[in-house]
Amino acid sequence: MRSARAEGTGSGASPASVPGSPRWRLVGLVTALAVLFVDQASKAWILYGLNLPARGTMDVMPCLSFTMVWNHAVTFGMFGGHGRWLFIAISLLAVLGLLVVLLRSRRRLVSLACGGIIGGAIGNVIDRLHYGAVVDFLHFHVGGWSWYVFNIADSGIVCGVGLWLLDSFLAERRSRNG
Hints:
Helix content is 60%, strand content 13%.
């Protein structure tokens, strides 16, 4: 059996080494800010630098195009854009809930996951407030196969959910083995 000190929860552990320490919270917050910044910067470049709304589509690589889509719906076009203010309210409530989880998190992957989801959700809320729709532009395709058009915020959300699932799987595995 490991001691509380070995677990990083005893009084002898340095704050930076404790899994639920401010360090991991800070990493989650920095992740949220990074996702938000890259998302908003990429959208500004797409809209005003490349003027993608006037172009419609621009091939970048054989499997990647920038394709302008004003998404009035939710993820993958669900709910057809009805209830813009409801989507904003739900997103902001989710962000508040995730901030609570982040501030209480004792695990690095959960902190990173919360940061990615928070940054992505805020990025899409900013779009809904500013443009009335989310700016989507990344379009992957190969041959006849085509993926939904999405943005960096969506990527932060999906990667965050993936990290959270991975953490859950690893935690379950640790509890069975330990």
